[in-house]
Amino acid sequence: MFRLLARPLFRLVPDNTRIQFMRGAVLGLIVSAVLSTASVILAFYPGLERGIDFKGGIIMEVRTPQAADLGRVRGAVSALNLGDVGVQEFGSPDQLLVRLPVQADEAGTQRAVNAVRAALEATTPGTRILRVEAVGNRVSAELFRGGMIALGISLIAMLLYIWFRFEWQFGIAAIITLILDATKTVGFLALTQIEFNLQTVAAILTIIGFSANDKVVVFDRMRENLRKYKQMPLRELVDLSINETLNRSLGTSMTLFLSAVPLALFGGDALGGFAWTMLFGIVISASSSVFIAAPIVLFTGAKSLRRETAAVPQAAAP
């Protein structure tokens, strides 16, 4: 029994796997470039669905005595002439989220909230206001700028860390891959119209950190194999390094993926955006280590990473 438990009962891939990933190096880079370009276009048109954190406005979470009539509630709130008003179900049929545009000042915000409260009470007696959030234009602009600065600083920090720990080829490969991962995630948000808010920024930062960790594992094995196999062609060495770390990379990615699935399915609107962004980012990060970061190292280090082979003494001719 103990002998049986001493060995793993399940492995995602066999230990002797020898997949030739670098045969698809060029195709992987082309597909990634196309997807990232499309993601940037989607981020501007139709654009990201900015949440209240970045767009500003008023959010009111309300609960009705029974299942709410969305059409009736929307008509009552729209009749107040407060601007573009949104009403949606939030978690359950008796819980709604009412969105109002930014008002002129704090007094205008308070009048708008009171007017909506009175309209909801008249339409559906017994309605309760559970939460009110108001963010002005200035605050939302500062939050958006802060979120973008946080993303930029994280990318620069990852670049410096990997650059100092490895050769420059690895640093370049890492930063390009992280940028491509981030752009694809933004494209996913634009395509699905998941709210782009502070939660999704936190998800993108988490993805960048996870992606960098995954690439460091592969890069570390590449560096070890560069010292171990001084005569092996770089293409074969890159494939060998990926195969040797494949179980660890897939195992880590699957563990994080499975932990985020319950949040995506049962977290509701409060955590759904964060969780779905994480799920997409995990898949992108795991694949980019193989099909983006490794090919960049292969092409940029084709000569410079193999300079030491010239110093290997040759056997004397008989």
From TrEMBL:
Primary location group: membrane
Give any Gene Ontology cellular component.
Answer: plasma membrane
Quote one Gene Ontology molecular function term: protein-transporting ATPase activity
What membrane topology is given? Multi-pass membrane protein
Localization annotation: Cell membrane
Q: Name one GO biological process term.
A: protein transport by the Sec complex
Q: Return the InterPro entries for the record.
A: SecD/SecF_arch_bac (IPR022813), SecD/SecF_bac (IPR022645), SecD_SecF_C (IPR048634), SecD_SecF_C_bact (IPR055344), SecF_bac (IPR005665)
State whether keyword Membrane applies. Answer: yes
Show the stretches that span the lipid bilayer: 21-45, 143-163, 170-190, 196-218, 250-268, 274-299
Specify the Protein export membrane protein SecD/SecF C-terminal domain's residue ranges: 117-301
Keywords of the record: Cell membrane, Membrane, Protein transport, Translocation, Transmembrane, Transmembrane helix, Transport
**Pfam families named among the record's database cross-references:** SecD_SecF_C (PF02355)
Q: Which family does it belong to?
A: Belongs to the SecD/SecF family. SecF subfamily.
The job of this chain, per UniProt, is described as: Part of the Sec protein translocase complex. Interacts with the SecYEG preprotein conducting channel. SecDF uses the proton motive force (PMF) to complete protein translocation after the ATP-dependent function of SecA.
Assembly with partners or alone? Forms a complex with SecD. Part of the essential Sec protein translocation apparatus which comprises SecA, SecYEG and auxiliary proteins SecDF-YajC and YidC.
Q: Which PANTHER family match?
A: PROTEIN TRANSLOCASE SUBUNIT SECF, PROTEIN-EXPORT MEMBRANE PROTEIN SEC
Output this protein's name.
Answer: Protein-export membrane protein SecF
